[in-house]
Amino acid sequence: MIPHIRQDYNKALTKEKYEDFLNALNLTHPGAIEFRVAETPVFVPKDFTQKILDACESIVDIITDPGYKELTRNAIPEHLQVPGENEHTHFIAFDFGVCINEKGEYEPQLIEMQGFPTLFAYEVLLDDVCRKKLPIPEGFSCYLNGLDRETYIKELKEIILGSHQPEHVVLLEIFPHQQKTRIDFYCTQDYLGIKPVCITELIKEGRKLFYLNNGVKTPIHRIYNRVIFDDLQQQTAEVQEKGKILFEEVDVEWCPHPNWFYRISKYTLPFIRHPYVPKTYFLNDVKQIPADLENYVLKPLFSFAGQGVVIDVTAADIEKVKDLENWILQRKVKYAEVIQTPDVPAKVEIRMFYFWKEGEARPHATNNLGRMSKGKMIGVRYNKDKEWVGGNCCYFEL
Q1: What is the distance between the alpha carbons of residues 383 and 139, in angstroms, rounded to a whole number?
Q2: pLDDT of residue 78
Q3: Which of the residues 221, 269, 298, 306 could staple to 280 if both were Cys, CB 3.0 to 4.6 A apart?
Q4: Per-residue pLDDT tens for 296-307?
Q5: Are residues 206 and 174 part of one domain?
Q6: Number of domains composing the chain
Q7: Which string of b and e fits 264-290 if b means at least 16 CB within 10 Å?
Q8: Residue 294 burial (CB < 10 Å; 0-12/13-18/19+)?
Q9: CB atoms < 10 A from the CB of 128, how many?
Q10: What end-to-end distance do the CA atoms of the chain give, in Å?
Q11: Residue 337 in domain
Q12: 382 and 290 part of one domain
């Protein structure tokens, strides 16, 4: 998006440099990165950064409104309500497509949002290696609001650990060492000292939870939650049975509480009115199917990683839906083919990280990740056998 920066970068990058970069990235935890890492970060000009932040802050206004919990009272499926919900999430991730409007101008458009963690720790490692191995120009940072590597890790640590020692905080996931995002779990352990623990390894005694820490039964006081219930519901009966522990009254603090995964999600999109947020409707509120249905996307509320999304919507697709209240119809956006690559240009999504400390009135932007695509959608399954696609980060012009 900054032509001279892009030209200089592309000219400087060779296949050998890219391979050297990948080797360095994999050195810390060999074999832990299963997803494709793109050949380039995204360089974002100041004015575009400001557009994204304006949109985020407008959405934060809705989330911080005293009536937000009432607004989202139906967001959490009844059978997935977890006791002990706190006043706000600790994390929000906003996904924006880099789009082109009718005037031919680049603008961000919100695709999705989640009150749930993402690759917060891995992006620190990625920035470290990018700066060592790739031709990153001066005057750019992946961090926001004046943060740098040290202050970002410090803030992440304060939020996740709370008032507890690392051995009493766990990163909770389903078979964490099998997850494609496990590199983030290992980086979290490196920077914060907390261990990834499988939900099947939890030990419950009364209202107390424990785990085996190097063979020693250790109390859990706080959970850094990475369990997605949609994933849990696809596990074997034995694993799901172990997962019921999440719905019991236990003496732990959550970071973030699982209910926020549903409150701050696609469910919130129909309530937002902003130029950089596509118009979105609950399907049960759509009294007449739009004549230009080809300009909409149909999405299930309770799914993740793009599962169940219908891009080329027909009236028949809508007629098939039985639980209308659990689906949204979202206006399509036109992704810009904005990143010049050696063959065809790539599309981009930018995920903004927002952190929310206890006691603060609002969350604030801290870091990001970028994803490049040449397929119909962002994601590995749509970009097989392509180059200059995959995950990386964005560098914002200072």
Answers
A1: 31
A2: 87
A3: 269
A4: 999 988 766 557
A5: yes
A6: 3
A7: bbbbbbbebebebbbebbbbeeeeeee
A8: exposed
A9: 14
A10: 15
A11: no
A12: no
Tell me, yes or no, whether 166 and 154 share the same domain.
no
In the numeric block, which tokens belong to residue 74?
Answer: 């139906």
User: Quick one: tokens of 13?
Assistant: 């990058």
- Other Cβ atoms within 10 Å of 321 Cβ, number: 15
What is the phi/psi pair of residue 228, to 5°? -105, 125
At a CB cut-off of 8 Å and minimum separation 6, what does 134 contact?
Answer: 9, 13, 17, 21, 40, 41
Residue 291 within any structural domain of the chain: yes
Q: How far is CA 262 from CA 114, 155, 265, in A?
A: 8, 24, 6
Judged by DSSP in three states, 281 sits in strand
Q: Please check whether residues 119 and 132 belong to one and the same domain.
A: yes
Per-residue pLDDT of the chain (398 residues; tens, 9 = 90+): 799 999 999 999 999 999 999 999 999 999 999 999 999 999 999 999 999 999 999 999 999 999 999 999 989 988 899 999 999 999 999 999 999 988 989 999 999 999 999 999 999 999 999 999 999 999 999 999 999 999 999 999 999 999 999 999 999 999 999 999 999 999 999 999 999 999 999 999 999 999 999 999 999 999 999 999 988 989 999 999 999 999 999 999 999 999 999 999 989 999 999 999 999 999 999 988 888 998 999 998 876 655 788 888 988 999 889 888 889 999 999 999 999 999 999 999 999 999 999 999 999 999 999 999 997 767 656 677 889 999 999 999 99
Tokens for 181, please give them. Answer: 């995002």
**CATH number for position 239:** 3.40.50.11290
Residue 266 lies in a domain: no
- Residue type present at position 262: Y
For 331, the token pair is 């206006």
Is there a single domain that holds both residue 284 and residue 150? no
360 assigned to some structural domain:
yes
90 neighbors 255 (Cβ within 8 angstroms)? yes
Beta strands in 296-340 (DSSP E): 296-300, 327-331
Find the angle CA(230)-CA(235)-CA(241) to the nearest 5 degrees: 100
Could you say which DSSP state residue 221 is in? -
Q: What is the CA radius of gyration of the chain?
A: 21
> Which token pair is 100?
């082109």
Residue numbers of the domain that contains 365: 1-81+91-158+351-398
Domain co-membership, 143 together with 1: yes
What is the value of pTM for the model shown? 0.94
CB 67 within 8 A of CB 235: no
Residues 250 and 294 in one domain: no
* Residue 10 shares a structural domain with residue 97: yes
